Amino acid sequence: MEKRLLRKNDFYLIAALLLIFSAIAAYYFMVQDNGAYVKISIDGEYSGSFSLSDDTEYVINGYNGGVNTLVIRDGYAYLKDSSCPDHLCENMGRISKTGQSVICLPNRVVIEITKDDGENEYDTIVGALFVRNNSDPAIFLRMK
Amino acid sequence: MLFGENSMNKAKKTALYGVLTALALILGYIETLIPAFVAIPGMKIGLTNIVVLFSLYAVSERAAIIINIVRIIVLAMLFGSPLSFVFSLVGGCLSTAVMILLKKSDRFGMVGVSIAGGVTHNIGQIIVAMLVMNTKAIALYLPVLWITGIFSGMLVGFIGGLIAARIRTD
Predict the structure, then answer these.
(1) What is residue B168's three-state secondary structure?
(2) Is A7 in Cβ contact with B109 (below 8 Å)?
(3) How far apart are CA A123 and CA A128, in angstroms?
(4) Which residue in B12, B17, B49, B25 sits closest to B149, CA to CA?
């Protein structure tokens, strides 16, 4: 068995991995565009979505009593004042592009930017009655 | 095999595994102190992989597997949560398996083996995160984890490789 640091195949491996990286990055860059809604799910379940065009703040009651504050301002969404111990989600920045997300793992809260309000399936089944106010007061408490 | 595991008596082997596991634990702890790598979940330099790579080349494949698994269990009990335990267990097992396979193929140098380990470690974590959180959104971290996997793997490969080439314990 050879115990060398670098061999010819290593360079091929690095080149191949970098190539795959640029392909993935290019794909992500292309599919990104400004989203219109921020969708919230808690513990994998859809729990509501809000328009990015209205500046608001909501308190989200997450998994196991955890609390996050969702802020929507100037077309960007972000989380602040998380009750979780690590506060990672507060450092994940502001999001505005479709597909971007901020995740608070301890509270199992995911906010994700979407093109539509994510209620389309709901629409066709239940009708237009509940569509506009889709925020569950047990989960979301409006602050502003 | 620098340490010639077969010629080693049980006490020496136990001591060696213990020392390497302790070293992996310390490196794992040091890594949690580097704030630059906290912003993105799953993003790590993978300093502990230096020990795993060293064990793989200088001791045995078995040593690399055992030390890595013990390291993951103890680190999760000390600093982690059940969730971070699953994350690192899947990432760690996947990367160790890939590293052993590539090493056995005898076509790659230690840097190449380490890079493959770094990238598969991150991919493993992303897959678990997608399953646990039940969301595809997390796949957006794939590009950044992919590229950090390559560069941290390179760094780890050079460090681990240089150490494995130099240490002798006869």
Answers:
(1) coil
(2) yes
(3) 6
(4) B49
> How does DSSP classify residue A128?
G
Residue A136 has pLDDT above 60, yes or no: no
Q: What domains can be seen in chain A, in order of their start residue?
A: 37-142 (2.60.320.10)
- What ipTM was predicted for this assembly? 0.80
Residues B34-59, mean pLDDT to the nearest whole number: 77
The CA-atom distances, in angstroms, between B47 and each of A13, A120, B29, B30 are 21, 47, 10, 9
Residues A13/B115, Cβ–Cβ less than 8 Å: yes
**Domains of chain B: residue spans and CATH:** 5-166 (1.10.1760.20)
The C-alpha atoms of residue B8 and residue B158 are separated, in whole angstroms, by: 27
DSSP label at B8? Answer: -
Nearest residue on chain B to A105, judged by CA atoms? B133
What was the pLDDT predicted at B118?
92
Distance separating alpha carbons of residues A52 and A54, to the nearest angstrom:
6
Averaged pLDDT score across all residues of chain A: 76
Whether residue B78 lies within 8 A of chain A, CB to CB, comes out as no
Going by the DSSP 8-state scheme, the letter that residue B139 receives in this structure is G
Residues of A in contact with B161 (CB under 8 A): 5
> Which pLDDT does position A120 carry in this prediction?
46
Using an 8 Å Cβ cutoff, are A95 and A77 in contact? Answer: yes
